[in-house]
Structures are given as C-alpha cells and as structure tokens.
Amino acid sequence: MAPSQEDEDDYMSMAIPEPSSTLSRSETSVQRRARQKREAEARAHQPSKAELARQAETKRDEALKTSLPTTSKGFQMMAKLGFKAGSALGREGNEHARTEPLGVVVKEGRAGVGLEGEKKRKFREDVGIQDGAEEGNKKRETEGEFRERQGREREEKRLEGMCWGAMKVLEGFESGQDVGEVNGHDEKKGEVEVEEKTTAKPTKQINVLWRGLVRDRQEKERERRMRYDLHQSLSRNAAYDDPDEDEQDRQAWGREEEEVEEEDGELEEFKQLEPAERLRRMVEHLRDKWRYCFWCKYQYPEEEMEGCPGLTEDEHG
Fold this sequence. Notes:
Order of helices and strands: HHHHHHHHHHHHEE
Mean pLDDT: 77
Strand content: under 5%
Number of strands: 2
Low-confidence stretches: 130-138, 185-196
Oligomer: single chain
Shape: elongated
Helix content: 40-55%
Strand order of the largest sheet: 1-2
Distance between the termini: 147 Å
Structural class: mainly alpha
Largest sheet: 2 strands, antiparallel
C-alpha cells in the first residue's frame, strides 16, 4: 500500500522538530568529567571552623524550636505521670507555672562566666549608678568639687610637713640647742646630738608633742641596723664570740632578746587629731615655754613677745 500524501514528509516546511528525549538525556564525555570533578571536590571539601559552628548553631536552633515528640522515651515517661502536651508541669491550677522550657543562652567567647556582669557593674559606675539600695545613686564629682578636694588634700599635706618641722624645733629646744641650731643651722650636728640625748630615756617619757619624731627615728635606725646585720651575718660564723660587741650587736645576732616597745595609746590618740590642731598645740607650747614664734622663726627675750603679729599663720601674712 502506497503511503498517502499526508504521511509524506514536507521537506518545504520551516518548522524545526524538537529533539528527542533520548538526546536530551544524553551526556557528553566533557560534561560527565566536569560533573564528576565537581562531585569529587564536594566530597573532598573540609568545612572550616566557622562553617561547622554555623551548622551546629542551625541544628541547635532547629532542635530547640521542635517540641518533644510523643515517640520520645522521656515524653512517654512524663505521660505516665499525668503530663499532657501543652500543659504545665507541677500542681494543677498554678497560673504561674511554665508551659515552655527555659530559653538557652549560648555563651560565646572564652571569657569567664562573671566577666559580663563585671563589665556591666563598671559601666553603671561610670554613668553614675552604684549597686546597693542603701547607698543610692552615686553622684559624680563636679569640676568645682574636684578642685576643692584637691585643695584640701594639698593643705593637709602642707600642714603635716609643718607639724614635722615644729616637732624638730621642740625637740631641739628640749635637748638644749640654741636658736641658730633650732632654725636649721648646723643641721647634721644638731641631729646627732638630739639623737644621743633623746634616746637615753624611754620613749614614753618624752612629750607627746614630738614623741612621734623620736619613734620615727628609732624605727628607721632599727631597720637600718637590721639590714646591715643581715648582710654581715652571711659571712659570719654563729659560734664566734666577739668581746667588743655591744648590746645592740648581741640583739642583732640573737644572743639577747630585744625589748619590744608596747603600744603607745597616747601617741596614737594624738596622731588621730587633724594636722591643724596638732600644729596649733605645738605652736602654743613653743610660745608658752620658750617664747619662740614658729612663724617668725625668732625667740623673743620677754614673755609678752612684743612685735609678734599673733598666734596664727594668717596673722603673720
């Protein structure tokens, strides 16, 4: 049977037939090699720490968003105890009971657990807030208050230095020095003579007005001898007996016990006074007993001290 005219191919048609499905599924050797290379690279790729951390974070978030499945052994045990999905744990009727578990806050970094709290505390102090309801809000120091406080500290330091100067003057008069030595002339010789005279009697018998100066000098001398004796003991035989040793040397070498001075309550009480009050008492003592003005640096011949402007520093200009 001869084919009909409709079955014959129309070679004059401009229509382009679609490629067959077998051709679309076929893969050339070049494409196959490229695909195999990509798959091999994907299999050989080692994820970095950042990628692993992101993957772990994603898995954790997904797991936290997922409720406990009913097939879980834990859910089945809770169900036997009366738990129902969506209800709260604990006694029935408790309106404050939790229906959702506590949220998980992941700590990042390698810092200690309390570091963030410490940072917050310091930040609150910087902005003027202090912990503790009894202390209230911390008031930040203004510029004027800061200058006033600095001025008070400088004044106290200046008065403290003047107290030490007044103690040296008092000690000089009590030890029999003349006015020139008291005012600072021949200072080295004066210190040696004062030390020899004041250390001859017990410290508690010295007037409390300049007793602190003597105690301070004794402490410094004791420390100096201890350092010197320690240095000498490194090269000395303990069994050696020196007939020329004095009492202090024997105490340093441990052959005699050193007398430990008791606490001086009177001196400690005097030190607790304000520098201005201590200085005032010293100045009055110098005027009453020695007719000496600490501000004028002069010993008057008469008790009236005629010519002295007054008792205080302000009166002397």
